């Protein structure tokens, strides 16, 4: 029985994969063993990965806004800043 076509990865999975690839790329660049040409290609690739991460985060924010208030997603308020002590401090 043939497999059904693979669905597009979820934005969360795409974010995780892009962030992981970006972290590995940064580690490789920080070693300083790359030629100028390799560094430029890695930088270009990193910019693309960064943009994919940003797009995934923007999609996640939109989903949260829509879930919070489907009738007025633009009116959603940001979460309050986290306190230093954590969730158990009340």
Tags for this model:
Helix Hairpins; mainly alpha
Query: What order do the helices and strands follow?
Result: HH
Distance between the amino and carboxyl termini = 56 Å
- Please tell me the overall pLDDT: 80
**CATH topology group of the domain at 11-71:** Helix Hairpins
Helical residue percent band? 55-70%
Label the CATH architecture of the domain at 11-71.
Answer: Orthogonal Bundle
The amount of beta strand, in percent, is: under 5%
Task: Count all strands and give the number.
Answer: 0
Shape annotation:
elongated
Overall description:
- By secondary structure, this protein is mostly helical.
- The protein has a domain at 11-71: Helix Hairpins (Orthogonal Bundle), CATH 1.10.287.
- Helices cover 59% and strands 0% of the residues.
- The protein has helices at residues 11-30, 36-68.
- Helix 1 (11-30) runs antiparallel to helix 2 (36-68).
- The longest helix is centred in the middle third of the chain and has 33 residues, at 36-68.
- It is elongated and about 55 Å long.
- Residues 86-90 have low confidence and may be disordered.
Question: What's this entry about, in short?
Answer:
The protein is mainly α and 90 residues long.
């Amino acid at each position: 029985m043939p497999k059904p076509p693979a669905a597009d990865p979820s934005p969360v999975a795409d974010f995780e994969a892009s962030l992981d690839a970006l972290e590995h790329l940064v580690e490789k660049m920080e070693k300083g063993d790359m030629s100028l040409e390799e560094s430029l290609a890695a930088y270009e690739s990193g910019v693309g990965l960064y943009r994919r991460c940003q797009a995934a985060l923007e999609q996640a924010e939109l989903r949260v806004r829509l879930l919070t208030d489907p009738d007025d997603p633009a009116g959603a308020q940001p979460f309050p800043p986290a306190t230093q002590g954590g969730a158990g401090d009340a």
